[in-house]
Amino acid sequence: MRPVLLPALFAFATAAQGGEALNLEDFERLVAGKTLDFTEGGAPYGSEQFFAGRRSLWRYAGDAECASGTWRPEGQAICFRYDHLTGEICWRIIREGGAIFAELHGSPDAGRLELGFIDETPLPCPQTGAGT
How far out from the chain centre does Cα 106 lie? Predict the structure, then answer.
């Protein structure tokens, strides 16, 4: 399985990025009970379903398997830890020109994901029983 570069979302944008950062409260309101779909360069990238207790499920576009995770705020980022990985993946979330982006924290050249849409459809994760 590829490393999860998930929508471990958001934080604060710098002036060079020209975006408005989402704070922790905005992020929690955005994700509470929702499934977020992300694109990279316009192509489907993956989806993350958020649950109470700062838990989530991540699924790459086209994959059958999901990764269980937890998230927490860390300074100006949101950091995700997944069951199958060691360490955390931290993202900054910014609002820019009417869109929302997740940028890998500490690595502005690593690319970024764009939030495609938000809904309440559970992810189909047969190994966890979620979405069935």
Answer: 16
